[in-house]
Amino acid sequence: MNLYGYTREMLEEYFLHIGAKKFHAIQVFEWLYQKRVFSFPEMTNIKKELRIQLEQDFSLFLPKIIKREVEPDVEKYLFLLADGEKVEAVLMRHDYGQSVCVSSQVGCNMGCKFCESGRLKKVRDLETYEMVGQILMIENLIGSRISSVVIMGIGEPLDNYQSVTNFIRIINDAKGIQIGARHITLSTCGLVPKIKELANFGIQINLAISFHAPNDNLRNRLMPINKSYPISDLLLAIKEYIFITNRRVTIEYILLRGINDSLECAEELANLFRGFNIYVNLIPYNETNHIEFQKSDKEVIDAFYRYLKKEKINVTVRREFGSKISAACGQLRSKELD
Ligand code: SAH
Hints:
The protein is of the alpha/beta class. Helices cover about 35% and strands about 20% of the residues. The protein has helices spanning about 10-15, 25-35, 50-55, 130-140, 160-170, 190-200, 215-220, 225-230, 230-245, 265-275, 300-310, 330-335, and strands spanning about 65-70, 75-80, 85-95, 95-100, 105, 125, 150, 185-190, 205-210, 250-255, 280-285, 315. The site of S-adenosyl-L-homocysteine has 19 residues, from strand 8 and strand 10.
């Protein structure tokens, strides 16, 4: 068992189970996530016998950063996992602080046609500690704390629900990494039953839906998941999510030249979401070497944006990060495998 995979509640149960007091869970959390020690002997306020027991029961192994690429506002890291697999994470610097984009799986099975990660079939889910490790190792390397986390790296987070929600519990914990719920964003391609489950998760994170097409015909072609959960089902799940959480949902929409960037598409999109508590985040496509999609022209993006605005749909255009160092969307790991 890896200690970084344990939520505070799980750790409390562990201590009770071995006949110790549950407040030790808070002590351990403070050592791991506030004082940031990386070994048991350093946890000096925990008595020796208990430390030895912890050492027997838990590993403190963390993934290692084996490659770092740096641009002024963005850094990309490649992590080596215990079994030799690799995933990536990206650090972005904004006016308001630093955010990290973490991966949730090794590869991905969703098969979105425009996405680099989808070319690499899922090898396995990431464990909770491997996601926590991405944050800890980056903070350790840069010597400062990050203020927000987006679960938008390699993988479909809702296809790894238990490990991802435990990861969120740990990074959000007041005794843990202390990232506020509103500074945590989970992005999904639209696994409807899991969106419904997430509505009752209880931590008020931001939910982003990778939408990318305003009708089933086009969405089926771009995102195979739409054949299992078509737009009408997805809209109902989004509606229910908003009703239960009272939170605004982000609708992500990559603009692909000549495919989904026409004003007719903008109109269809506006018609789907009129009256919903959502905002649309338009994403300039990050072109990759392998996939036959291109980024829309700036004027086309502007026109799409203005149309939604005119239709009173809240809309923003995502700032582009890391296109030079291929930080976006599975490109680093995929480059490594070429
Ligand atoms: N599986 C999740 C999270 C990972 S993808 C999801 O589908 O949301 C994170 C976001 O990046 C998604 O909106 C995805 O559609 C988008 N994306 C993938 N490849 C991209 C590319 N080349 N350029 C821009 N965005 C991309």
